[in-house]
Amino acid sequence: MAEMAHIFAATDGGPRTDEKLSKEKRGSYENIILLCANCHTLADKTPEHHTTELMIAWKAEHNSKRERAFGIQTLTSRSELRTALTSLLTENATVHKEVGPDNDYRFNPEAHEAVAWKKRVKSTIIPNSLKILAWLDANHSLLEADELETGEKFRFHVQGLMMKHLEGENLPNSRFPNEMNDIGN
Questions:
Q1: Amino acid 142: pLDDT
Q2: Distance (Å, whole) CA 124 – CA 61
């Protein structure tokens, strides 16, 4: 199972501290890398060997592998980006509409829909959302300033889903930013 690790420490005095980084930058996507539990522990216990440069290189390599695996590419137009995002957003929206936590079953956590939602978040929502983020990252030059902000809100939402459904953290999460449905239009 993957854990979210910080490239630069989240707090002063931690591994690879950069006291000049703001709290927001320390918690940003750019400062997070997914590692297995063993690598996360090793990187934090031996920061002299797991330098920021190494961690940044690992993240770049992870992103490159993910982009190749997902078939992500740099596009030339907003309409191409919109096409790439539409089916992923539509599938996620369908899952949410059918078994999402806003349905009537929310008052019964043992309902079949609750079980289906938990499985679908792991099998569909999170993988699709990571693909969406990969498309946005690879094509950020096609986005307008407000769309870049919406993308970061979406990234924050996805991180919360991962923390809850993959790491077992029971934390409140931000809602899906509805503006995502208009990116690239």
A1: 95
A2: 24
